[in-house]
């Protein structure tokens, strides 16, 4: 099977450290283990491919011009469809096209429909709405035109959550095509975690430090716990625009000494950092049409950490309150601090929740299972390939 994997998003370094980067890498790993021949078309590689990806054929797309002018960059990205399609045709033929949705790329799936090549469109977020809310959406008519074209032309559309599915189904061309396949984890990466040693409990967070991750709530809860005399430390893995504000707030309260910001780290460093934590926290704020499928929660669970997350969207289905973790009201530092105190006061509960979450991650949320679900949804047969684990 020859697959063209397309990521034309300049904001995603395919071999980088972002959650989106990890997602792409894990899907590619599974396909390669099954003996799939992959040509990767990428706008941004983010460094040299690791050894595991040496068998990929990689076609790096030309850098977008336009400088800091957002309209010019959007126009350049739209114009880049022609160059991508040319490279796709030259590198073919392909049996399957698999594209991760980006704001401006549409030409290959449109061509594949006419050529009779099966297509899978993976959609991770309602990008025009996200851009409008958190940044600035330029060329809005064109951006919505791209997604309308894609959902009409794609054979199968994979949404990573019910929230994404709901957004996609506002477009008539998506009706009957959308299947929800949530994100996953590689449980084997996290299988060596040791029980926590005596001493202060470490509260952990992994992810980009951006507004939609609710880090202010975690920091305020942490300050409350310190004020109540609970021996806790804070470990934040990741970087982003909120780092300076969070550090300033901790400094204001004299709590910086027991909080550590690791910054962005390589994916292979994450398991060891999770192994040094005692509780994994995903403090999402209240968001309309919650659409995330959080990699961090799957990783917390695979690492055997009890999880505390917000009762928003579909997270109550991912984290079972009192079984694999605890659910709290969003944007409520007091409730979050109380949940931490519950776990701090009951080591056996921490252990029970962590083990149950780990078992769930292993049994239901491996990347192997995710990719098989995607191929099944698309009506495609995944080659057996080399021997592989689930």
From TrEMBL:
In terms of SUPFAM superfamilies, this protein maps to:
UDP-Glycosyltransferase/glycogen phosphorylase (SSF53756)
Gene Ontology molecular function terms on file: glycosyltransferase activity
List each copy of the Glycosyltransferase subfamily 4-like N-terminal domain by range: 19-189
Signal sequence extent: none
- The name this protein carries in UniProt is Glycosyltransferase family 4 protein
